[in-house]
Amino acid sequence: MAARRNTKLVAIVDDDDLIRSALHGLLKSIGLPSQTFASSEEFLKSGRQHQTACLIADIRMPGMSGLELQAKLNADHCRIPTIFITAHGDERMRMQALRAGAVEFMAKPFDDEALLASVRAALEC
Amino acid sequence: MQSTFQRYALAPISCGIALAVAWPIDAPASCFLLAVMVSSLFGGLGPGLLSVGLSALAFEHFFLGRTIPPAVEPALYLRFAVFLIAGLVITALMEVKRRVEQSRNRAEEDLRQAQVDLARVSRVTTMGELTASLAHEVNQPIAAAVTDANTCLRWLKRDQPDLEEAREAAARVVKDVSRASEIVSRVRVLFKKGTAQRELVDMNRVIREMVALTRSEATQHSTSIGAELAPDLPQVMGDRVQLQQVLMNLMVNGIDAMNDARQTRELTIKSQRADHEHIQISVSDTGVGLPSDQSDQIFNAFFTTKPHGTGMGLRISRSIIESHGGRLWAENNAPRGATFHFTLPNKAGTHE
């Protein structure tokens, strides 16, 4: 737990390249380094999940969805504070995500201030 | 498909075989008729006639003058004449059979083409697919642009603004918006297909195709579909796929409107001449009818009474009809249900 808090790595998982670079750029502007992944599978294969202090993930992706990724991480006892950003946002999905331990659930386009606030909150977990 | 040479070669080959068989058993008529059958069935009209000719020649040469002295009995010539007639009749019958099959194949091909058209229409259709996927796709670069623009502002709002970073962020905004624009123009291409995709369209045929295609959907909803088509309906100059799209939209709307109807569910499509220059198509249902004070509002973008409707269907249908020089409107039926009418200028009425 302590080790993770020290490294403060933020991981971004989204299949859209423009969203990845936008989020990376936003986090850089407040001095937070981040790593981007084009898919849940890429993230899991990287082994970085154990150093990730906060995960920002899209829900609907080809392959493993954001919610499935969350479930997999929970099953592996790798609880990472997760913020979901998604183009589709319905209430049922929001409840499902929050119940599975998500920190926040945001629709695109999102308020950058709100996102950063959630990231800061996640990093304090 | 055999080559022409192969087809015509059948004639002399089958006649040769027939001759070889007929000579020893002295049964020229049967053998040559068989040869004619084979030639016309597998070769076609030309080879069939050729085999009749060759058989007649062989018949005449080898069998008619066989007796010594070469007596010419009338009976023999009668046989010859009967043989000739039989040969021609067989050839004709085979040709008829082949024509029937060809038209059946063409009908199957037409149906297949209509299904392909429908698949394309369904993909590009206004029934939610297009707008939903467009909305999702274009939302991504827009969200990225908002983030990148805000990031740019953050770099500039610092006590020590980092111009290099701000510039990079601004460049990302340009990239994001260009991607959004690309998506929109891709959709426009799908839709428009160029201004001059006009051809002569038989609306009765289009209606029949659409009815055939939506029949299974209709039976699933316990709805009957009927068509009352004017037999002398003139053709129109238009974009076939777009007109299919409009019909599809109106028909599906009609079926949906009858979802809760407890009495008979009937969808009727009617075609008729409207005046000297126009035809009129009407799609009627026995469903919920139009909201009384909003009968023209239903054509506005984003107006929908369906829980998952996008509200684009009628708007786009009206645009299509108007771009063809027609009008689309709706009215309530008595006792219940609604009818959507649209007019199209017929070929004579089109000013090009």
- CATH fold name of chain A: Rossmann fold
Give the CATH class of chain A.
Alpha Beta
What sort of overall outline of chain A do the alpha carbons produce when their principal axes are compared?
A: globular
- How much strand of chain A? 15-25%
Concise overview:
With 125 residues, chain A is an alpha/beta fold. Chain A has helices at residues 2-7, 17-29, 40-46, 66-75, 91-99, 112-123; strands at 9-13, 34-37, 52-58, 82-86, 102-107.
Please specify the SSE layout and strand pairing.
The complex is a heterodimer of chains A (125) and B (352).
Chain A: H1 2-7, E1 9-13, H2 17-29, E2 34-37, H3 40-46, E3 52-58, H4 66-75, E4 82-86, H5 91-99, E5 102-107, H6 112-123
Parallel strand pairs in A: 1-2, 1-3, 3-4, 4-5
Chain B: H1 4-25, H2 28-42, H3 45-64, H4 74-124, H5 129-157, H6 163-192, E1 199-201, H7 203-220, E2 224-229, E3 236-238, H8 240-257, E4 266-273, E5 278-284, H9 313-323, E6 328-332, E7 338-345
Parallel strand pairs in B: 2-4
Antiparallel strand pairs in B: 1-3, 4-5, 5-7, 6-7
Using brief descriptors, characterize the structure shown.
heterodimer; A: about 120 residues; alpha/beta; 5-stranded parallel beta sheet; 5 strands; B: about 350 residues; alpha+beta; 5-stranded mixed beta sheet; two-stranded antiparallel sheet; 9 helices
